[in-house]
Structures are given as structure tokens and as C-alpha cells.
Amino acid sequence: METDATLPSQPRQQLLALQRVYGRPQHFSEGETGAEKADNNFRTLRILTALMVAATHCLWVIYGFEPDEKDVVLNVLMQASHCGICIFFGLSGYLITQSLMTRPDFLHFTISRILRLCPLVIFSALLMGFVAGPFFSTASFADYYGDWRLWAYVPLNAVTYSDLALPGLFETAPAGSEINVSLWTLKYEVMGYIGLAMLAAAGLLTRRFLWVIGLIAIGFFCYVSYFTTLRAEIAFMQHGLRFGFAFLIGALLYGYRDIMPLNIWGVLSFTGLAIVTNSTPYMEPFRIIALTYAALWIGTKPISSLLYIKPAGDYSYGIFVFHWPIAQMVLQLNPGISYGDLLLYVMPMTFGLAVLSWNLIERPVLESRPLVTDYLRQKFAAIYPLAEPGIDFGRRGLDVMSSYHENEAVGRPPRPLEPLGDGARQNSASDPLSSRENELDLPPSLRPQASGYVRRVK
User: Fold this and answer.
1) Dihedral angle computed from the Cα positions of residues 74, 79, 84 and 89, in that order, rounded to the nearest 10 degrees
2) Distance between CA atoms of residues 121 and 116, nearest Å
């Protein structure tokens, strides 16, 4: 019988064998991944991008959605908002793919996405619809609270992320009666989440298949963009393809991060391609690739080497959600206000409200994820197999190695072991190493196996 000192040798050999097949994974401690890792700039980058989108949206609030085409500066500034949104989608594709591949738990993934998006949208809808709205509406209180649109506003916002009109609110504003125009992009974000989850469930979220999916998606983007008129005729296709392409580039850059490392030479190369194609029909895809790559390069850099800023919270979502209604209200109170003055009002008010929402709503809700996930897992495990601990989706297409490194933090068992050949697992009582399995600080799948069972790698 092996001694305690020699027991870990076989699991270590299995670990090295898996590394040879799958490659050595990147982890938070190794400086490659993670918006949640302290030493990176993802949080700062998201906040700055949200502020850029808020600043450009203030132009829309003043001048409406169709500015004078002869005003070149104004049109360039408004295009910056599209660039900011593409950066958001590129970052999201990278980070959500990372989250899904390092923790392939369907229930946890779903709960995390719901708790990140919905609570603040519901709160902002309640705040705007029932608190601020009546005081800025031209309708009387009786007519305002008696209108069905008010009572449908909150649930429809939470479910469809569509910006609906409220009775008598902002009807004469240059941008129309838009209460919160920023919400319309969230539906495309949710589509990206669903698409990644479906790929993982089908076992396709792996390096073996991801490049094929990327080629198909890029081919579809090019075909629809350059050989059809669908994007000009259907607004959903126009925006969905743009944001979906940015999301896809982020996902591909994470999936092949060892082949395409993020560095300054890549930033300069993609930026050069974007500049060269700027006046051609192929400007959009190269611009999105350059923006996404540069944003990820900045985001993964250590804080001390670049921006020297470490925000206490992730205020970007609050800035994104609150800036538009605040700008609309400021404009209604100050008709004819200049763009610079509007920014002086909107930016500090939006940032302050975002800080409050992070500390009072977003962070407490996000901290409740383990409790909510465990409760639902226990509640529905009998009727919903994917809620059972240890039954994750798409295990074929996910990084097997992550279960070894993340097992203790995640607290879920790995997938069952498969027999080699026709052998059957021996009784644990006859296994000389089984009595010592619980003494090893290793996941069950990588503990010593004297019965001929190992994790099958293909």
C-alpha cells in the first residue's frame, strides 16, 4: 500500500495528462482573466465607457435622433455612442465566456445573469414611473395614475427591456417621449447570453468547435451586410448583427487567448486596419475588432501599470441605466440649456445615483446569488435535473481542468468517471486507496483510482 506521501503522485500524473490534452488554463491568479480579479482595469474601463455613452447620449437629448447631417462634429460625437456600446458588448462576450467556461453551472449562470440585469431595471422603472414621473408629466395626477401605460411600464420594462412612453412625460422633448432609451440594447445582451448557453449545452463551447462557429457567424455577418439589404430594411438586423459581432469577437478572443495574446502590437495592427478601411464599406467589422481588442488589452493590464485607478464598486451599469432619464428631466427644467451645462448637471448626478444603487441594490443582490442558487437547486432538483449539484450543462465543451482548480471555491462535484474498456468499478471496500480518498485535498475525479477508472479525454 502506498504511503500518504506518495498518494498524490497519481492524481498529479492525471492532472499533467489533462494539461497536455487541454492546455494549461488561465486563472485569476495568473493575471489573464477576470473582471472580478482585483488587479485589472475591467471595472474602470466599464465605468469610463459608460460615462462616454452618457455624454454622447446627452447630445441626443438636446438635438434629437436626427441631427443636421452637415454638422460633422456632432455626427462624429454621436457615432462615439455606438462605439461605446460595441465596447460593452465586446467586454461582455469575453467575460461571460470566461464565466461560463470556468464555472459551467447552468443554474448559477442563469441566476447570475438575472440578478445582474433585472433588479436595477425594475428599480429605475419604479423610480421614474411612480416617483419622478408624476411631477414631470403634463397630465394630472388622477389621469397619470389612472393610465394603463403606467401600470404596464414596470413589468414590460423588466421582461422586454423596451422603453415605453408614460402619459404626458417628455412629449415635447427633442428626443421625444423616450423615458430611458438606453434599455433597448439589453435585449441583445440577453440574446448573447442565451446563445453562449446553447453552445455550452450542445458541447460546442470549446476550442475544437469555436473557430468553426466563429467562421460561420462572421460569414453570415458579411453576407447579410454586403450582399443583402436586410440591415437597411430591418432595424433588428442592423443592431443585432453589430452588437452580436462585437460579442462574438470578445468570446473568440477569450477562447483563443493563448493563440491571440492581448498586446500593444495587436492594438496597433487592428487600429491600423480600422484606419485603412475607414472610408470603405468594410469599416464596421474592422472598427469593432479594433475597439474590442484594444478594450480587452486595457482591461487585462494590471492597475498599477496603466490607469492607477481602482474603483470601490462597479458603477457602470448604474450610469448606463440612470443617465438618460436624468438628462431628460434636467432639459425639461432648463429649456434651451447648452450641451456643456447639461453635462455639468447630468454627470455628477448620474454618478452619485450609480454609487448609491451599487451599494444599496446591486451589490447586496449580487451577494445573495449563492443563497438564491442553493435554494432553487434544492427546491427544483427533483423535477429539474440541471438544478442538481454536479449536473452541469455542456461538460464536453468546457475546460475539464477548471474543475480541479475551482472545485473548492465552487463546491460542486465533477462529472462522473467513465470506465476504460469493459471493466467495471470495483467495490470501494476492496479498493486499497478508497479508504484514504477523503483524506486527500483533491477533487473526487482526480483522486487515486485503483479500479481502472479515469476521466476520459477526447
Assistant:
1) 160
2) 10
d(CA 57, CA 333): 18
Contact 107, 376 (CB under 8 A): yes
d(CA 354, CA 361): 10
Cell output for 401: 481542468
For the residues of 319-375, what is the DSSP string, one character each?
HHHHHHHHHHHHHHHSTT--HHHHHHHHHHHHHHHHHHHIIIIIHHHHHTHHHHHHH
Q: How many CB atoms lie within 10 A of CB 208?
A: 11
Cβ-contact 298, 105 below 8 angstroms:
no
Global pTM? 0.74
**pLDDT digit string (tens) for 94-143?**
999 988 888 878 888 989 999 999 999 999 999 999 999 999 998 889 99
Which strand (E) or helix (H) includes residue 419?
A: strand 418-419
Helix (H) or strand (E) holding 89: helix 72-102
Taking the C-alpha atoms of 35, 37, 42 and 48 in order, what is their torsion angle to the nearest 10 degrees?
110
Which one, of 453, 374, 375, 365, lies nearest residue 411 by Cα? 374
Q: How far apart are CA 248 and CA 349, in angstroms?
A: 34
Q: Residue 74: pLDDT above 80?
A: no
Dump the DSSP string for 34-56.
-SSSSSSSHHHHHHHHHHHHHHH
pLDDT of 85 above 70 = yes
Q: Please say whether the beta carbons of 162 and 156 come within 8 A.
A: yes
- With a CB cutoff of 8 Å and minimum separation 6, the contacts of 162 are 156, 183, 184, 187
Q: What are the tens digits of pLDDT across the range 237-256?
A: 888 899 999 999 999 999 88
Alpha-carbon span 20 to 117, nearest angstrom: 38
- Given a cut of 90, whether residue 293 has pLDDT beyond it is yes
**CA–CA gap between residue 367 and residue 308 (Å, rounded):** 27
CA-atom Rg of the chain in angstroms: 25
Burial pattern 385-395, b for ≥16 Cβ within 10 A else e, equals eebeeebbbbb
Q: Measure Cα distances from 218 to 213, 247, 382 in Å.
A: 9, 12, 41
Confidence of residue 233 (pLDDT cuts 50, 70, 90): confident
